[in-house]
Every structure is written in structure tokens, then in C-alpha cells.
Amino acid sequence: MTEPTYDILGIGNAIVDVVAQAEEGFLSRHDMHKGAMQLIDAATADALYAAMPPGLESSGGSVANSCAVAAALGARVAYIGKVADDQLGQVFRHDIKAVGVHFPTEPLVGGAPTARCLILVTPDGQRTMNTFLGACVTLDPADVRSQLVASAKVTYLEGYLFDPPAAQAAFYKAAGAAHAAGRQVALSLSDAFCVNRHREAFRTLVAGHVDVLFANEVEITSLYEKDTFEEAAELARADVGLAVLTRSEDGSMILRGAQTVTVEAVPARVIDTTGAGDAYAAGFLTGLTAGKSLADCGRLGSIAAAEVISHYGARPEADLKLLAADAGLG
């Protein structure tokens, strides 16, 4: 096996995030369910953007955020995601490359515009997401270069991207290329919305092609259609080599074979929960690819998540390497 060039290769929806503060009444007036994600069309995106309070615009997308956090922690990172050849696409490309992530995907020319996610953050820190996927849905197997996949220790797949058939085919191509090269495949379930739409397809992917599974309590119970977290966790333990299950302020549970590791959440003042799971996964995968123990991987994930939820936006503002070093994880 050749020495890997990258620690993590992310594959996901390349999105520009617009994050704004909003009262709960704004959500009600626009028929939103607090804390959830919904897909919207171009016309709705334009109307909602016009109605939103002033916001912070930055490159986003779940796994793209994870890639940025992992790079901030010192991991070697690459990313595959589709943007258009437009202004937002150029912004996305500049931002992700500026944080040290290799981004080789060719832009879409003459089609849908670059995706954007309009995020409303209520005073309790909960984020409600409205996503126009735009160019994201055009990602297909041709965008997945097997040589690039083979050069990464872990290929990390984003559940949000699992909707279009072409993207599902891209996932299977990436998983096949990774395993052929002796590498690992990780998957985030991303949101119960995604799981509910594609439950059987997700279960097939998880059981047959995923080595590391990330999910929160709602997502994992939805995947296995169980009433309790404990029942669902045991089914995840049987399906994958490593299940990493987050539980918000209750920390996380990591399952590998008969081993169970629990990790406490790092205390933080919650300002905006956007990107908490993405940051946790980034810290965990950074630790995993560096050969750290499962407990230390979980601690690194918790440190990254605590930093991200302490301010608006899903990208880190503090020096994550310094935070990790202060916790004895440098």
C-alpha cells in the first residue's frame, strides 16, 4: 500500500451559508420547523434571502465544514463538491482553498447556480436551515477520481448529498475505490430528514460499505426505526466497525466491537449550534487518522464542537491546535 497523501477526503454538498439571527416568530411566519432542515427551490431562496435579517455569508456545506475544521487541526485534507462557475462558486473555491483544503472539482458551466443554505439562529442557539441545492445535485461519478480516493486514509461521505441517483452512484464508486486501496469509508447521516427519505438505501450503504458511521440520537433511531437510542446503538454496533454517536450536551458514545467508550461534552456557551456535528466529526477523524485512542478521538471532536458552537458560523475562530494542545491532545 502506498503512503497516503491525505488524511481525509470529504465528499459533500458545496454550499455557501448565510447565517442570521431571528426570533421564533420569523420561523412561524415562514412555515419553518425549528431545528430542522428543508429543501427549497430557487424562487423561495430568493424570497427568504430578501426577508432575512442581515447575515454572515461564508462557504459551508456539512462535510466542507468538517474539512475546514480538520485542516485547522493540522490534518491533510481534500474535498470533492460541485459549485457553479459563478460568483458564489468562486467565493466557495477561494474560501476552502484558503484554509488549506485541496479542492480539484471542476465547476459546473451553464447550469444551476451555486447552492446556498439560509440559516436562522433563534435566541436558544438552535439553527433552522433552508437549503437550495443548485449545482450540488449535478455531482456524479465522473467527479470522483479513484486515484484521489485511494490517496486518502479516510473518505468521508455526507448524507445530505445522498438524494440524487447520480450522487448515490458517486458514493458507491468512492467506497469501492477506497476499499480497493485498503482505505476506510466514513459516513455522516447528516439529518433525520435525509434518513426518512432514503432509509433502506442508507441501511444498505451502511451495512455493506461503511467503516465509520456518524449520527446523532434522532438520526440513528430513525435509521433503525427503534424507539430508544440504546436499541438503535446496538444495531449500529453490529452493522459497522466503528459507530460514533453524538448526544449534544450529553456527550458522545463510541462503539467498536464489544468496546463502548463514552466521552463527555466540553462545556461551552451555546451561541449557534450550526456545524457542531460537523466539527465533532472533523476532530474525531483527525484523531483517528493520527492513530489516537477512541477516547482521545472523541475528546478532540468535543473540543472542536465546543469551539464552533460558541460563536456564529460553522468554521472555527479560535486556534484549534492550541486548544487541542492545552487539553494534552497536540
Keywords for this structure?
single chain; 330 residues; alpha/beta; UDP-N-acetylmuramoyl-L-alanine:D-glutamate ligase; 9-stranded mixed sheet; 5-stranded mixed sheet; 13 helices
Describe the structure.
The model has no long low-confidence stretch (mean pLDDT 94). The chain has a single domain, classed as Ribokinase (UDP-N-acetylmuramoyl-L-alanine:D-glutamate ligase), CATH 3.40.1190.20. The protein starts with 5 loop residues before the first strand and ends with a helix. The longest helix has 16 residues, at 165-180. The strands form two sheets. It has a nine-stranded mixed sheet with strand order 6-5-1-9-10-11-12-13-14, sandwiched between helices. It has a five-stranded mixed sheet with strand order 3-8-7-2-4. It is α/β, with parallel strands linked by helices. The chain has 13 helices and 14 strands.
CATH superfamily: Ribokinase
Strand order of the largest sheet: 6-5-1-9-10-11-12-13-14
CATH topology (level 3) name: UDP-N-acetylmuramoyl-L-alanine:D-glutamate ligase
Strand content: 15-25%
Shape: globular
Helix content: 40-55%
Summarize model confidence as the mean pLDDT.
94
Q: How many structural units, i.e. domains?
A: 1
Distance between the termini: 27 Å
Summarize the biggest pleated sheet.
Answer: 9 strands, mixed
Order of helices and strands: EEHEHEHEHEEEHEHEHHEHHEEEHHH
* Radius of gyration from CA coordinates: 18 Å
Q: Return residue spans where pLDDT drops below 50 for at least 5 consecutive residues.
A: none
CATH class wording: Alpha Beta
**Using DSSP, what is the number of strands?**
14
CATH architecture: 3-Layer(aba) Sandwich
Structure annotation, total helices? 13
What structural class do you assign from the helix and strand content?
alpha/beta
